Amino acid sequence: MSETNTAAAAETAAPHRYTAAMAADIEARWQDFWDADGTYAAPNPTGDLAGDPAVAARPKKFIMDMFPYPSGSGLHVGHPLGYIATDVYARHQRMTGHNVLHTLGFDAFGLPAEQHAVATGTHPRVSTEAAMDNMKRQLRRLGLGHDKRRSIATIDPEYYKWTQWIFLQIFNSWYDTDAQKARPIAELVAAFEDGSREVPGGRDWAALSEAERADVLGGYRLAYASDAPVNWCPGLGTVLANEEVTADGRSERGNFPVFKSKLRQWNMRITAYADRLIDDLDALDWPDAIKLQQRNWIGRSEGARVDFKVTDTDAITVFTTRQDTLFGATYMVLAPEHELVDAIVPAAWPEGTHDVWTGGHASPAEAVAKYRAFAAAKSDVERQADAKEKTGVFTGAFATNPVSGEKVPVFIADYVLMGYGTGAIMAVPAHDTRDFAFARAFELPMRCVVQPDDDRGTDPSTWDDAFGSYEAKLVNSANADISLDGLGVVEAKAKMTDWLTERGIGEGTVNFRLRDWLFSRQRYWGEPFPIVYDEDGIAHSLPESMLPLELPEVDDYSPRTFEPDDADTSPETPLSRNEDWVNVELDLGDGVKKYRRETNTMPNWAGSCWYELRYLDPHNSDKLVDPAIEQYWMGPREGMPTGGVDLYVGGAEHAVLHLLYARFWSKVLFDLGHISSAEPFHKLYNQGMIQAYVYRDGRGFPVPAAEVEERDGKFFHAGEPVKRELGKMGKSLKNAVTPDEICTEYGADTLRLYEMAMGPLDVSRPWDTRAVVGQYRLLQRLWRNIVDEATGEVTVTDAEPDEATLRALHKAIDGAGGDLAGLRFNTAIAKITELNNHLTKAGGPLARPVAEQLVLLIAPLAPHIAEELWRKLGHTDSVVHRDFPVADPAYVVDEAVTCVVQIKGKVKARLEVPPTISDDELEKLALADEGVVAALDGAGIRKVIVRAPKLVNIVPA
After folding, report:
1. Tell me: domain 300-512, CATH 3.90.740.10, correct?
2. pLDDT for 615-645, tens place per residue?
3. Domain 894-956 belongs to what architecture?
4. How far apart are CA 604 and CA 597, in angstroms?
């Protein structure tokens, strides 16, 4: 009989067997029911989403996934891993008495949709909404229990109205270092007006022009525009944040070269929160690796600021963590972009300038200009790398070492960055490896001021490398006013800091690696800034009544791009070409005036900085969020001192981008009293990645994985051998498997079980379509244990289950329940499988209580089949809000445990004993055993070691 005929015969004999077709019917029906019934609607304690007070009184659980970006190619099976995991967890939490908020929206602004619009002429909204509809369809098919009333998209004007509103809260705020919090800018203005706070420069606030006042306030605002070095990407026609530039100095998107350029851009003063961003990590339940990445990115270090005078009016300020080595500073280095460079460069080389310092250039100005162009073509990462060849050029200027009075030459070099400290360093070549290499290359002097602990001596000219130590003593470090000789590093640092402070030429300080967040993008498809400029170029915020400021329609979506290597270019934005939108007449409270709109847009990170708050109160048109609702879902409570989402699941790749930015926005909103949670996400869990095999032909190009054959451990495509490697899953690698394919062949419940059973959630794992059938068979056996495949009738009985079955059942409930609560889904499935196999082998109809608890046990993992079986068992309610089974402790404990009795390490007896037996009782039983007595043969006993209930070790005398 053919395979087709065999399958047809089986279907005729068992018309009610659980098959892919049956799964599809069951799953579609229950998805429709859940939508119509509002099964997953989580009630708020107040507002238009308020529900049953009894439900709202339950302990809450707010569970979130990281925002998906709607891709036109849809999902592959790697994408839903985290979504299925949070859904399983959310279902278990509902069944254990929690009011669960779980929903999903879309992070829908960004470059991919804009690039698609440029290529096809399709409006970004059209392609984005089509991609969202497709993803919604795919996600619905997986049976995800989301509260769809709360779903949002960042491109909806009613959503980005509040993104713009938050921007204005940040723009209209400043950070009070005394209070260690953000305050409204109006309070700072009032302090300037009444004289309780001195205006920078000592001028009278009333005497300042409007433009001068705007400049002063710009130095305080948490959102400000400034001319600053930025990462300019001509190939994309936009500037990029540091985090969007790869280690080799190219754009993360498109792989274009990135150059340093000076442009006027919007920034967020995230550096004001650097201390709090580090310190508050201690209160969060996050992976240690993510906390470490954030601490390293923020980069807090303690040291001192020191002034080196260059002229009567100019001084170079450096930040150093080794102020104890000031006597060893023999030259200085500025970043090529440093603002003082132009001011200190003389017209000609000073007499006696070494040839190696000039780079062969005729004048300092020429040398500096050529070197700046050279450095601009390198990324910050490249500049910090320990390259063998040190490059730089003498500026022609000298600075005065404040402790020795010595004139030291000032260089520019690419290994010093404006992004760290002050963009200037004092070089102590005897005790810093990079300074040592630079000094050797440019024939600069070196002075030992830290006594080496080896036999190298104190003449650095004889050394192979610098000597750095925090344990050694200071030497050669004294003048008429201070001596550090003989002191340890810590003591010497403190003494030097006091000396500098007393003389007003330095002070102790803390420095951070973190730079302010570059917030402008030269794109169309992003949130417009709610900012306009008057005829004097002063920025004004739009009133809330004018929000949202919607994106206008444009004919050309693309920013002006340039040749990728053309660094001498500057941005031109799509919005700047829409003159009717840009130039407006508005009444901002002082009459109708002409204004010009900001033509940059916000980065795609903006909408994802606060979306957890919109999930709470998505239809509120009057407030960002109702305070009572925010307090209920996210407010501080025991074990969560800073509040936040109860569980946030997503990829580790967002450690220093989205997560850091979202924490900053939350802290500003918290300081201003808009929310009660100082942190957005209390518990963070990073899921692993589903990988897939990539097959490459002889040219190294991927071939379709589905068309590859395996023969004798080797792989072939179209008859030709190919190589297999493990990598990402994706369209470009021709190895993507869509969830639609698996749902069609096996059903969504099978896909859910397979993805959760593949291994620990936080570990990456390879996809194997052939292995999916294992979970499909589990569901078939489960179905068969309750439903007669020939008649479709339920086969359960009202008889009492036997003790062995009760023990298997309650052990599974106890183990799987703990595993589901702990996100150990693979082991939970293993325990459920073990129970189901026990029931299958036992044969005969299941007792009703066993069948019902089995269905409830698997409901979080395979909700569709669970709903169907629950209804077949005679229930009219949904399993979603049923209580999860509770294990009976009497059946969880083993009835008997095997205890091994050893003499001299060799097993002499095995005893079946109660698991609760005491050490004394077990020792008596062991010594009375016939085999033990015979083995001892009258010998005395020196020691008996008892590890109840499983081990007794007897040591003869």
Report:
1. yes
2. 999 999 999 999 999 999 999 999 999 999 9
3. Roll (3.10)
4. 20
